[in-house]
Please model this.
Amino acid sequence: MPSQTTPVIETEFSTDLNATQPSRATLLRVYELMRTGDELARLYEENKAVTAKYVHATARGHEAIQLAAACFLGPHDYVTPYYRDDAMLLGLGLEPYELMLQLMAKRDDPFSGGRTYYSHPSLRRAGFPTIPHNSSATGMQAIPATGMAHGIKYLESQGLHPVTADPRDFHESGAPVPGLYSLLPAEARPGGPVVVCSIGDGAMTEGEVAEALQMAVLHQLPIIYLVQDNDWGISATGREMRAMDAYEFAAGFKGLQRLRVNGADFPDSYAGLATAFDYVRRTRGPILVHAKCPLLGHHTSGVRREWYRGDNLAKHTTNDPLPRLHEQLLALGVEEQELEALGEQARTRVLTDYQRALAAPNPDPATFADHEFAASAVTEEAGERSPAGADKALMVDAALHAVDDILSEFPEALFYGQDVGGELGGVFREAALLAKKYGDARVFNTPIQEAYIMGSTAGMSAVGAKAMVEIQFADYIWPGLNQLVEELSKSCYLSNGKFPVQALVRVPIGAYGGGGPYHSGSIESTLLTIRGIKVVYPSNAADMKGLLRAAFLDPNPVVLLEHKGLYWSKVPGTEDAKTVEPAAGYVIPLGQAAIAQPADAEQLRLGNTCVVVTYGMGVHWAKTASRQFAGQVEILDLRTLNPLDFDAVQAAVRRHGKALVLTEEPLMNSFAESLAGRIQRTCFQQLDAPVFTLGAANLPAIALNVELEKQMLPSAEKVAAALAELLEY
Model:
């Protein structure tokens, strides 16, 4: 059937025109699915006392473009739907019953086990495209989706395959493909995997979307940005929210192809997406498809259309894709009775599935904490920590060698961030010469885009690439925090364990020598309020090498904090940060503290001892200070802040009866104060003194002047004063 308009695109295509025309079987199946979506929306409205217990949105008005996209998404592809994409999910082969299980937060919801909203899918299932977890998809999904395309491009460059890619043609091989892709002509199938990022036009104004588009064109990534534009946010109209639509906005990204389609017309949407998929599969470059759609339902069940739409709703109804397709099929000679039979079939299926879903069991409350993390790959120390004849290494070199070992051993590993590639190899030389050794596809510079650096790792992980990334200074991490919280930290839990994010994020941290307010901050307390991530903080070269490898091998997001003042052991008192370098492959389990300095057994027997619980630079302040109290001070190096080895903390505190918790952070409301409170609660009966705490002054930034910096921060002298008071208590 001919399309209503010709897709407009700014490049030449060799798409077979026959492949841009949907077959009769496709049109009829799409019609049935449109009727199914219509019945779902109607049922949800008629039973809103039940169905609106939790917030949902439906695809009404958007069905044509969504089902067209589903026609071209094969089992080797990847897609990030957004919260209005239930028609797309039906087109991929999901059953109404499965969508209703999520609607009602039931135990057998295939996406999240009742943990997240309707049409927030995450799916690994044979025959289906991979659907990684993403957040509520109001722009944040663009970066992880682009990260998937970036990971695919990288793996292809190394002769590797994404984790779900299958070189077979699924249709020809007979493997089951339950969705509309099974009806796609063979000539439209060849080509590499494609990522589809589905997004609303309102979300295109998010700054993170611009970061994603920039990287897509900079690296020419195989991704389709499918923009569904209904001219509404919640109650804000397009003219209130933007100066241009997504198609016009995309013109500013050189190398991003653009295509407009009528998103309310299925044949036109099909033709446009046939062109777009063909382009991306062949050229491996990005394209943006802008589809204008009516909004026929509520924004969500919690924001009802009658509250603010007025005459606008009637205007949108005239562009309803369902009656339009109905008339097109009649014009093709399909009998009215056949269409009504399909509609009745859809209605019966939806009503039957609704009753099944109502009766389905709820989640077992005992499982509420399952899947915070995927199981750790490293559970015990392994390898040589102190090889015979090995030289001592600086902490920065131990980190460099650990990354080098990983890149050499794991071809799916790559490393990127600001200034880590090319000649410099990082502002601290922590990646020196790695780009020359492994090539620019594996070790490369990014733009100043902390959100992309952070969030792209979720997409990399979903396709089987293993990203190590760097935020240049801890003070620069804040633009990336949205991605860390919304996309990385929640993925394992909300996908019911299907999509843990394997990501190693290196962050130089801490103050010394006049770094000033934007290069000296400590951020661990903020990070530790984020559930679902691990936070590691080594204090010496050997631990750095072992913990970095464990962090890379861990299947969860790990933030590795690396104190700049320990990198070269130039700061007086930090000589012990330089250690014999462990052999390649040395690894330390995350969540295992170490005694950096034991107390003397006789002083312990006499009751003259205390423990300093600390990490990072605090270990070295405590060592220097303890020289004034020979044999009286044990130093417990936490090494990992989450998971915290609280058993080791309790054992040390109970052993000595006196404890000082030491941090470089401002003390008020910090991790250190929280830890002190936990110690007081669980070790109260063994304490001979209150738990002491020491940290930086409670000020918003580190001053530039070195004397002001010294006044603000802890030091060996300040620790010694606290130890004297504690031991005398």
Residues 392-580 form a domain with the Rossmann fold fold (CATH 3.40.50.970). The chain has three domains: 24-165+192-359, 392-580, 594-728. The longest helix spans residues 336-359.
